[in-house]
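Late entry, written up from scratch paper. The run itself happened at the end of the previous shift, but nothing got recorded in the book at the time, so transcribing now.
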Amino acid sequence: MRVPISHDLGKDEVRRRLKDHGHEIGQYVPGGLADVSTSWPSEDRMDLAVRAMGQGVDGCVIIEDTQVIFEVNLPPALSFVEPMVASAIRQQGQKLIAPK
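Output as recorded:
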């Protein structure tokens, strides 16, 4: 699943905000009890591994000039929640890159 979020911040600023607030991603998962690990394989890509309620979901955030793309690999057993997850990513992704 791909969820693009538009921005006008510039790549450097988006990268800084994601690095400063990436640890908050676990709070956005329902229940706020997710274990989230992040890594940066390149300067414009943050990989995510999310573990919650016995499930694991991997994904990444790709930083482009005018948008941030959240890619999430939902397991087939969770495909029915894709619309809810996409909506949450749109809403919470905006908060993640918003000024604090």
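The chain has a mean pLDDT of 86.
(Scratch paper discarded after transcription.)
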